[in-house]
């Protein structure tokens, strides 16, 4: 049983008539990189702000290290936060920004200086201490914001879309740095983002939120390959969701018919299906393989024809029409051969197909 | 409310502000309104107020119309034309904001009075200049610069890009102004007209100096107290005045919000406006020269009068008037003016900042009510405010309270709307995530306010400080019922000296008073290196 660091129990927050966060519960293990992922307006930022103490939940409890913190004022929670726009104090130098929390806490000057220097080095800003925030690049400002929070050695670190204001390349680079930082410190991070790549690559644990509720929580692997709802499958990554009906159940497998065709797939643990149930076949485009018509090979193959294709560099994405329905198929390393065109076969590996109840 | 309970410091600050507002804004007003009590009936059936009310409305309509017209011309010329000497005209336009409005009446008497330079020395006339015509003329000149500031502020807020677009679509400059700029600025212009009307309505100094038997509401209220000791009557008259001012003020808020300060220096707009025809620029230049000439004449005659024995009869140069005003009791008055002004300015702007923070950043119920009370003094005529303080605090049990302190308190709260609104506007430009960052780093909200927000609100503090100082040193009506011989101030002495027809000394005092305001504005502008904003000075 992992050590639960942060626990939300049936937390609800309403703004007027609408419930921004609706009966949300989850546990975050100590030392994990936990991410709240969801589209804008799903309640992820509201949840984070309740943890930080900027909003009071209308119902439910928030427990940090086993202690209920609902009634603790925000500045006594030990939940330092990194803001989307960094929120650096423009009238303080980088050093003073980082020192601010220690100053408030009344840490003696000598120790303060030592910890500030240490932190500046740690986040790679050793030489920029005397600069003003407006003299820094976006990436540097972001490091100051992280350093300013980390120097306090907070219980947990909250991060509200900290990378969304940076350009694409820097975003990816800082992603790795954040992850390395978190693992080095062994600290619990709670991270909010709408970017599924970020969530998948950074997190130990993801809670996908939609319309104020947690749709599913688990490891990135689980979320990606075993989504419980169509919304989840669609929100995280590209996916083929093909409607079908269960025609037969046998030895943990289900025969699912879609259109004139049928496929035998494994039933995911915890999914109770009856014969005749409406389901969706959930297949990631990279799990499918494209082949020329008549090419030899094993397993089920769907005859179709290429409607469109897009060259994305690391892969070629095809839209293949099968029985009047478009399937997404990704082919890795497109430079290795000539792109497909016209009539093709879409090979399905049944073990790569996941089932979602309709 | 929950967050308030968790932070006793904030709760305490809020309670302090509420108590202060209750004691020094609400209570004095209530006292004035309740003072007549049963005699309201008698008062209204008596009908002595009817003439003053009619006069006030008459003067308000005439002076507002002419002041706004001239102010509009000046503002259009400053914002739209390519005329030369704009910095000079801008400076001339600020001057009246830094002086007691009644200086125009003073120099009017010097120039056109029975022994006036122009009427008597040039034309050999001794016509009567007192009454409606005089007030109209004087208020027009006194208040058009205020109208100009307000209108210029509105016009410069209009979007130059939209005007560029209209020109690009083929409209001429006048057509753009008429069909695009004016309709878009209509609420702002309406608000400017109403604000000017409030200034005119509550003007006490000018009608007091040259009204003669033509009484308006403020002068009637003053006359009832100083001549007959009739406090209930004066309170009833002031209540009528307050009611009118409140109607105008709430109409103004409905049109354009409660903002009551304008930026008076610095660039009007970064984007150039489409050029106007050279002929228009020249016409603007001519009009502005004429208006600036009149203002220069007003202030020039004050300075000359201050430096001569008995202008215009005896024009021998003397420093006797300045020696007189800087020595003895007069020196004390001048010193009081400076000390009261500085104290009021400092305390008012600081209190306004805290109040602005509590209202803008707070999440407690009742914020709207406090907000309304904090902007309300902007609508209260100075005379009403002064009578309120006299009624509420000239009580035996408050005898220990120094009258100078009371004057400072009255200036703090009469002027709090400007600093308060500047603070709220300043806070709105600072993202809340900065407060939250401080909080998440362990600072209580008061601590975050002190460490993070206050240092960023220098501009708002300056607006409150400068405006309060300028208005504190130039107001007459607020303090006229509060002063004692030891706590007298410059404007009171000027008023008394004019009553004694001692023009040399009165004008010397006026010049010194304006000098104080200019030095204060200059010093703060220097510290701030540029932009500062100023609320309207009031009599």
Q: What's the CATH first level of the largest domain in chain B?
A: Mainly Alpha
Individual helix count of chain A: 8
Q: According to CATH, what is the class of the largest domain in chain A?
A: Alpha Beta
Task: Please give the largest β-sheet of chain B.
Answer: 2 strands, antiparallel
Tally of separate domains of chain A: 2
Number of helices of chain B: 25
Q: Which ranges of chain B are low-confidence, i.e. pLDDT below 50, for 5 or more consecutive residues?
A: 264-269
Output the strand order for the largest sheet of chain A: 6-7-8-3-9-10
Sheet of most strands of chain A: 6 strands, mixed
Structural class of chain B: mainly alpha
CATH fold call of the largest domain in chain B: MetI-like fold
How helix-rich are the residues of chain B, as a percent range? over 70%
Low-confidence stretches of chain A: none
What count of domains describes the coordinates of chain B?
A: 2
Give the CATH architecture of the largest domain in chain A: 3-Layer(aba) Sandwich
Got a strand count of chain A? Answer: 20
The best one-word shape of chain A is globular
Q: What is the subunit arrangement here?
A: heterodimer
CATH architecture assignment of the largest domain in chain B? Orthogonal Bundle
């Amino acid at each position: 049983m992992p050590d639960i660091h942060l626990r939300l129990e049936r937390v609800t927050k309403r703004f007027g008539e609408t419930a921004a966060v609706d009966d949300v519960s989850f546990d975050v293990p100590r030392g994990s990189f936990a991410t709240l992922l969801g589209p804008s307006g799903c309640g992820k930022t509201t949840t984070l702000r309740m943890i930080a103490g900027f909003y009071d939940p209308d119902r439910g409890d928030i427990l940090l290290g086993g202690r209920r913190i609902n009634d603790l004022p925000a500045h006594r929670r030990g939940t330092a936060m990194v803001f989307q726009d960094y929120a650096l104090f423009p009238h303080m130098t980088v050093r003073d920004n980082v020192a601010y929390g220690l100053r408030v806490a009344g840490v003696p000057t000598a120790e303060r200086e030592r910890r500030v220097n240490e932190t500046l080095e740690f986040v790679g800003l050793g030489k920029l201490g005397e600069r003003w925030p407006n003299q820094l690049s976006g990436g540097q400002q972001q490091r100051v914001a992280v350093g300013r929070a980390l120097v306090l050695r907070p219980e947990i670190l909250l991060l509200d879309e900290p990378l969304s204001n940076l350009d694409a390349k820097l975003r990816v680079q800082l992603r790795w740095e954040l992850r390395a930082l978190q693992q080095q410190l062994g600290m619990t991070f709670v991270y909010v983002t709408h970017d599924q790549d970020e969530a998948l690559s950074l997190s130990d644990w993801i809670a996908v939120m939609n319309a104020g509720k947690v749709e599913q929580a688990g490891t990135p692997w689980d979320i990606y390959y075993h989504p419980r709802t169509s919304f989840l499958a669609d929100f995280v990554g590209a996916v083929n969701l093909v409607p079908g009906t269960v025609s037969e159940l046998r030895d943990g497998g289900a025969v699912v018919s879609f259109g004139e065709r049928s496929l035998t797939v494994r039933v995911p643990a915890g999914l109770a299906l009856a014969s005749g149930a409406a389901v969706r076949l959930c297949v990631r485009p990279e799990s499918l393989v494209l082949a020329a018509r008549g090419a030899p090979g094993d397993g089920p193959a769907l005859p179709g024809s290429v409607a469109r294709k897009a060259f994305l560099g690391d892969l070629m994405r095809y839209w293949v029409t099968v029985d009047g329905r478009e399937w997404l198929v990704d082919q890795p390393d497109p430079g290795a051969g000539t792109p497909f065109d016209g009539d093709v076969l879409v090979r399905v590996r049944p073990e790569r197909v996941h089932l979602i109840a309709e | 409310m929950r967050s308030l309970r968790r932070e006793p410091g904030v709760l305490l600050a809020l309670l302090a502000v509420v108590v202060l507002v209750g004691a020094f804004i609400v209570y004095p007003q209530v006292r004035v309104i309740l003072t007549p009590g049963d005699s309201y009936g008698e008062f209204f059936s008596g009908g002595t107020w009817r003439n003053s009310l009619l006069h006030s409305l008459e003067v308000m309509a005439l002076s507002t119309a002419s002041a706004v017209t001239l102010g509009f011309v000046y503002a259009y010329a400053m914002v739209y034309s390519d005329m030369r000497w704009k910095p000079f005209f801008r400076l001339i336009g600020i001057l009246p904001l830094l002086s007691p409005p009644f200086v125009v009446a003073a120099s009017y008497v010097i120039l056109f009075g029975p022994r006036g330079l122009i009427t008597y020395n040039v034309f050999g006339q001794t016509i009567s200049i007192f009454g409606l015509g005089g007030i109209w003329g004087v208020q027009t000149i006194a208040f058009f610069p205020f109208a100009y500031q307000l209108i210029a502020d509105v016009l410069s807020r209009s979007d130059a890009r939209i005007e560029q677009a209209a020109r690009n679509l083929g409209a001429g400059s006048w057509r753009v102004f008429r069909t695009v700029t004016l309709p878009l600025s209509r609420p702002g212009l309406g608000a400017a007209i109403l604000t000017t009307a409030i200034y005119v309505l509550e003007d006490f100094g000018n009608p007091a100096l040259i009204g003669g038997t033509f009484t308006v509401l403020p002068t009637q209220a003053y006359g009832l107290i100083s001549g007959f000791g009739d406090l209930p009557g004066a309170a009833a008259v002031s209540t009528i005045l307050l009611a009118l001012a409140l109607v105008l003020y709430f109409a103004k808020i409905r049109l354009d919000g409660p903002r009551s300060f304008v930026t008076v220096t610095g660039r009007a707009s970064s984007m150039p406006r489409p050029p106007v025809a050279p002929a228009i620029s020249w016409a603007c230049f001519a009009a502005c020269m004429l208006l600036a000439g009149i203002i220069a004449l007003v202030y020039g005659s004050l300075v000359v009068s201050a430096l001569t024995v008995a202008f215009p009869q005896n024009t021998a140069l003397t420093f006797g008037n300045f020696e007189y005003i800087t020595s003895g009791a007069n020196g004390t008055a001048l010193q009081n003016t400076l000390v009261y002004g500085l104290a009021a300015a400092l305390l008012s702007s600081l209190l306004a900042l805290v109040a602005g923070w509590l209202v803008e950043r707070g999440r407690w119920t009742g914020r709207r009510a406090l907000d309304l009370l904090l902007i309300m003094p902007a609508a209260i005529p100075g005379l009403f405010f002064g009578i309120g303080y006299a009624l509420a605090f000239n009580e035996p049990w408050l005898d220990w309270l120094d009258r100078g302190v009371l004057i400072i308190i009255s200036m703090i709260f009469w002027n709090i709307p400007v600093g308060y609104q500047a603070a709220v506007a300043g806070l709105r430009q600072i993202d809340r995530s900065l407060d939250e960052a401080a909080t998440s780093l362990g600072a209580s909200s008061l601590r975050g306010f002190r460490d993070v927000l206050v240092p960023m609100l220098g501009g708002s503090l300056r607006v409150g400080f400068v405006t309060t100082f300028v208005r504190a040193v130039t107001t007459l009506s607020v303090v006229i019922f509060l002063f004692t011989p030891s706590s007298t101030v410059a404007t009171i002495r000027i008023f008394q000296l004019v009553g004694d027809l001692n023009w040399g000394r009165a004008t010397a005092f006026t010049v010194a008073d304006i000098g104080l305001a200019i030095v204060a504005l200059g010093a703060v502008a220097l510290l701030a290196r540029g932009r500062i904003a100023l609320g309207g000075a009031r009599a």
